[in-house]
Design goal:
CATH topology of one domain in chain A: Four Helix Bundle (Hemerythrin (Met), subunit A)
Helix content of chain A: 55-70%
Number of strands of chain B: 2
Distance between the termini of chain A: 78 Å
Shape of chain B: extended
Shape of chain A: extended
Distance between the termini of chain B: 69 Å
Strand order of the largest sheet of chain B: 1-2
Structural class of chain B: mainly alpha
Chains: A mainly alpha (217), B mainly alpha (774), C mainly alpha (100)
Structural class of chain A: mainly alpha
Largest sheet of chain B: 2 strands, antiparallel
Largest sheet of chain A: none
Oligomer: heterotrimer
Order of helices and strands of chain A: HHHHHHH
CATH architecture of one domain in chain A: Up-down Bundle
Strand content of chain A: under 5%
Largest interface: A-C, 95 and 82 residues
Number of helices of chain B: 29
Number of strands of chain A: 0
Chain lengths: 217, 774, 100
């Protein structure tokens, strides 16, 4: 077992436990911490195949910035209350979710199995355009700033738009806040409803009223 | 020079647009002259185009000028394109030429009409539409013009729409034509479905490859359209009513141009009809028989009409029947030849009748005409030329063209051809008869416009009798009153006498002097009263006797009037109608007419008459039958007509047929001379009321449409409302129903949607797997 | 011997876990975290294949995915903040205004 494979396996265990933790942790703060674990694991996996620059970015941007942003929001809103994972309001959602997840996994594995990947692994020693061997960062930079320069510029616009959008949405609106509509009925994906049928009736009545209006006009 | 063809429809279009904009401001007569100039411009450009076409080699004389692509759908395309060939040019020449003359005529005819400029807007629009109809190189463009002329016909027939009758006539023309248009449209669809193209050159070119049912359906559906537009039985009935329009309209639209467009259409698709002649002769036989049947039927009706324009209307229907007969016989040249000569002489006759109507204070009843020859010299001279032309008197135009049609019917051979020829011949005889009748009634005989006609004489007699009866009754009542008064006077005398006797008794019993004096006074007074009463009684008696005598006289007068009325004899034919003893009682209209002085029309109206009269005389030169060199029209049309028709009949047969038809025309004219000029027979024997009523056909159609027909159409309307609309509405409610069912899927729950995405990606992955595995 | 297939398998596992997480969890923040897991799974594929096929393009894609993820988190969290202001402790199931 080579060191490379060993490193991959260790990091893989870290990633898998981390991601399972994210999904299963009742507390969002714990979930965020598990997410950091996962992201670190992924960064290590990047290092294993010598994607140094991306590994660094992974740690700095993802683990460092994004997850911290998550934590900020959790703290800011004070929503660090635990979620009761033993209850599922939407009928049939959870079994279908597991079936769907398992199906995706199975199909992906089947596809991986049937699709042969050809090529010589390794990118460290790949010669650059001038013939000399360039470091990974240089190669990446060359691709981004030559072939992909337009996409790169567009990402700049995307980020600006995202920032503006976030500011607009999160800003405090003067005056009393309108409460969210209280909807007691929670029905699943065509699998009936835990709630009563009154709301359905109301909705039908409203629809009928709309129809009448439509007929009049 | 063929490019000048673009100008041909452009001129009337510009005229139409500018009249729309400034017509009212131009007023009378400038608007009329502008319209005339527009039509004249079209005529001039047509002449240039004519020379352009003539300059081409004979094989190249079919030029398609495309303006732009109109309808494009896959391989199928319809262009706004003009097909310039000898046929369309020939048609355009007489449409624009006669159109210009009639425009000029209208300037005079519509003088003083409050909607003077509007009339010319419609007229120019009509000419434009007609040219599009003629020039269109495909069925769709022709249909556009076809509908355009139909709309203009509607506008112009009901031009004086304030009168209910005129508006109804316009509606009738429009609705009846819709029936025919149905056939035209379905034929277009069929051509699209089977041939894949609707332009004439392709249709004619592929006619040979069509199967017989398709060929027959195409021709017969187009023929349904022709029945409507060219007023063939059973759809002819709008044309006589269309006479409600101004007379120039009748001349231009309902005689010379629009109604011939059906025949033109059939000639345009002569490739199809030729194919039918070769392989499915029953189709062309239907056309020929409808044509000759219409000609015959309409001619019988024309015999009895009293309205001068109605005679010409039925005559037009009849002549159109001739043209359709020619098409059905496969001799398109004859059809076009007759179309052109007919346009000359029928336009002339209509314009002449318009001139007469104009001169006769808008009275259209021929029975009141007579002796107008001296009063309207130009009108009568030109009208007589038109009459000779239509009656088939050589060498006038109508003789040559009509004879060629009869010859082509004969040439079909067999009993079929001979029967067609025979009915055509009888129709020619009747044509000569009713046209002569019209001429004799209008221009010959005595001037009798101020005299009452038969109906008015009856009216006068009725008024006379009613008057006498009234007088008798009145006198009788007066006599009764006088007798009553006398009886009363006698009674009063009795009373006075009794009072006198009483007073004398009183006097004889008087006791003293004083009483005697008083009684004597009373007796004197009573005596005076008796004298007075006696005088009154005598007077009343005299009055009674006098009233009695008056009553007796009145009663005698009434009896005399009645016996006079009963002794009234039918006037001998041609004798001047008078009301005799009742002449005091003729209706006021007669007196009004008596004060009217007929006059010749102004130059705008007579100039076209003279030009058309010249054309009616020499129109036959277009296609004289004697030698092949004289077949100008036939040689001209050769590039447009798919095959060359050669008459099988020998020269001798032709001569015999021509002489027979001249004899038939002569018999017709002689018959009319006997009846209407020499008055040797009573016209009532010929003018049966059922003929005046058009064999009751019109009424039967109206009764059917009002009764069972209306019920049937209501049934169809029900089907439409419930079944057809039901299907549409059903689609709607199905969508709505399924929508409200599917609505439940929209739970608004983000995680449900996410689950949907997940399941979708599972399906996608499964598909990938299948593809990778495969 | 390490092959790209290892990466693909790991990626499939993480992606499935993330997908199940999105479907099962109700806290919008945690759902976002699960989305991040799925994005990282995809990144793993890219990196593995970039290495396996000896092509820098995979790494470039990862770079862009990260940028997009950052933008998405910014906007998403802003939405969460806007919602949470209105009702404390709201879950994804409470936001069913789009109900048909």
């Amino acid at each position: 077992m080579s060191l490379q494979l060993f490193s991959f396996l260790v990091a893989g265990v870290v990633v898998l436990t981390g991601s399972l933790g994210v999904v299963m942790a009742k507390h969002p703060v714990h979930a965020a911490l598990f997410l950091i674990q996962t992201l670190f694991g992924v960064a290590v996996e990047f290092l294993v195949v010598e994607a140094h620059f991306l590994a660094a970015i992974q740690v700095i941007v993802y683990a460092g910035a994004i997850v911290i942003l998550f934590l900020f929001v959790i703290m800011l809103l004070g929503v660090d209350n635990a979620e009761d994972l033993s209850v599922e309001p939407i009928i049939g959602q959870r079994p279908l979710a597991f079936v769907g997840g398992a199906a995706i996994l199975g199909l992906l594995l089947a596809i991986i199995n049937s699709a042969g990947i050809t090529g010589v692994p390794g990118n460290v020693d790949a010669p650059g355009p001038t013939g000399e061997v360039l470091p990974n960062v240089n190669q990446l930079a060359e691709s981004i700033f030559t072939e992909q320069v337009f996409a790169f510029e567009v990402t700049g616009i995307l980020l600006t738009v995202a920032v503006v959008g976030a500011v607009v949405m999160a800003r405090r609106i003067p005056g009393a806040l309108q409460p969210l509509p209280d909807i007691p009925a929670i029905s699943g994906f065509g699998f009936g409803s835990t709630g009563d049928t009154d709301t359905d009736g109301d909705a039908d009545a409203a629809m009928a009223a709309g129809d009448e209006q439509g007929d009049d006009s | 020079m063929v490019d000048f063809v673009y100008l041909v429809p452009l001129f009337p279009l510009l005229g139409f647009i500018s009249l729309m904009l400034v017509g009212r401001r131009l007023g009378e007569p400038a608007a009329g002259y502008l319209a005339t100039a527009a039509c004249g411009g079209a005529f001039a450009s047509t002449v240039v185009t004519f020379f352009g076409i003539r300059g081409l080699e004979e094989e190249e004389r079919q030029v398609t000028k495309t303006l732009f692509n109109w309808v494009i759908a896959g391989d199928f395309g319809v262009d706004v394109a003009f097909l310039v060939d000898p046929l369309s040019v020939a048609m355009m020449l007489f449409v624009t030429g006669i159109g210009t003359l009639i425009h000029l005529y209208s300037v005079g005819y519509m003088h003083g009409d409050p909607n003077f400029s509007k009339f010319f807007i419609y007229l120019n629009m009509f000419v434009f539409s007609m040219l599009i109809l003629v020039l269109g190189d495909n069925l769709l463009l022709t249909f556009l013009g076809w509908e355009g002329v139909g709309a203009c016909s509607y506008f112009l027939v009901s031009f004086w729409f304030t009168e209910e009758k005129n508006a109804m006539a316009g509606k009738k023309a429009f609705v009846t034509n819709r029936v025919g248009d149905w056939g035209f449209m379905v034929a277009t669809f069929l051509a699209f479905a089977t041939i894949g193209s609707i332009d004439y050159l392709t249709i004619n070119g592929t006619a040979a490859q069509l199967s017989t049912p398709v060929l027959a359906a195409l021709i017969l559906l187009l023929f349904v359209g022709v029945m409507g537009k060219s007023a063939q039985f059973p759809l002819y009935l709008w044309l006589p009513d269309a006479m409600a329009g101004p007379t120039p309209v009748s001349a231009l639209i309902h005689a010379a141009t629009m109604v011939t467009s059906g025949v033109y259409l059939l000639t345009r698709v002569n490739g199809l009809i030729y194919e039918a002649l070769l392989h499915a002769q029953w189709v062309t036989n239907i056309i020929a028989w409808v044509g000759v049947g219409t000609a015959f039927f309409a001619a019988t009706i024309a015999i009895a009409q009293t309205d001068i324009k109605k005679v010409l209307a039925y005559s037009t229907v009849s002549q159109l029947g001739y043209m359709v007969l020619a098409v059905g016989s496969g001799v398109f040249v004859a059809a076009i030849f007759h179309m052109i000569t007919h346009a000359f002489f029928k336009a002339l006759l209509f314009l002449g009748s318009g001139s007469v109507i104009h001169g006769m204070d808008d009275d259209q009843d021929m029975r009141r005409y007579g002796g107008l020859r001296k009063l309207m010299p130009i009108t009568s001279a030109t009208f007589i030329i038109g009459w000779l032309a239509i009656a088939g008197v050589p060498p006038f135009a109508g003789f040559w063209s009509k004879d060629e049609i009869l010859l082509s019917a004969w040439d079909l051979g067999g009993l079929n051809g001979k029967l067609l020829w025979f009915f055509g011949l009888i129709t020619a005889l009747m044509t000569a008869f009713y046209m002569s009748r019209q001429v004799f009634m209008t221009f010959y005989g005595d001037y009798r416009f101020g005299d009452p006609d038969a109906d008015e004489v009856d009216e006068a007699w009725a008024a006379y009798l009613a008057h006498a009866q009234d007088a008798k009754l009145e006198a009788g009542t007066a006599a009764d009153d006088a007798i009553e008064a006398h009886t009363k006077a006698v009674a009063a005398l009795e009373t006075a006498r009794e009072a006198y006797v009483d007073a004398q008794i009183e006097l004889s019993q008087a006791a003293d002097e004083e009483a005697t004096v008083a009684a004597q006074k009373v007796v004197d007074a009573k005596s005076t009263a008796v004298d007075k009463a006696e005088a009154a009684e005598e007077k009343a008696q005299a009055a009674r006797d006098e009233a009695g005598a008056v009553a007796k006289a009145a009663s005698q007068a009434d009896a005399d009037a009645r016996s006079e009325a009963s002794r009234r004899v039918e006037p001998a034919p041609g004798e001047q109608l008078t009301a005799g003893a009742a002449s005091e009682f003729v209706p006021a209209a007669v007196k009004q007419r008596a004060e009217h002085h007929p006059h010749e029309s102004n130059w705008q109206m007579t100039t076209p008459l003279v030009v058309l009269a010249v054309l009616s005389i020499f129109g036959g030169l277009l296609n004289l039958p004697f030698t092949s060199d004289l077949h100008f029209l036939e040689h001209w049309l050769e590039p447009s007509i798919v095959f060359e028709h050669k008459f099988a009949a020998s020269g001798l047969t032709k001569w015999i047929l021509a002489i027979v038809s001249i004899v038939a025309g002569g018999i017709g004219i002689m018959g009319a001379v006997m009846i209407y000029l020499k008055h040797n027979a009573d016209p009532k024997k010929i003018e049966k009321p059922i003929l005046l009523d058009a064999w009751g056909y019109d009424r039967a159609v109206s009764a059917f449409m009002g009764g069972p027909g209306a019920k049937m159409f209501e049934g169809i309307a029900w089907l439409d409302a419930n079944i057809v609309d039901g299907m549409v509405n059903g689609t709607g409610s199905f969508v709505r129903g399924s929508g409200s069912a599917v609505r439940r899927l929209q739970s608004g729950l983000v995680r449900s949607y996410a689950l949907g995405i997940t399941l979708g990606s599972v399906a996608l992955l499964a598909w990938f797997l299948v593809r990778v595995a495969a | 011997m390490l092959t790209p297939t290892y990466y693909l398998v790991l990626s499939a596992l993480v992606f499935s876990i993330g997908a199940v997480g999105v479907l099962v969890r109700r806290n919008p923040l945690v759902m976002f975290m699960c989305v991040e897991l799925m994005l990282n799974a995809v990144n793993l594929t890219f990196i593995g294949l970039a290495w396996g096929l000896n092509d820098i393009g995979g790494q470039v894609s990862v770079f862009f995915v990260m940028v997009v993820a950052a933008a998405e988190v910014v906007v998403g969290l802003a939405i969460v903040v806007a919602i949470m202001r209105r009702r404390d402790g709201a879950t994804a199931d409470d936001l069913s205004v789009l109900r048909g």
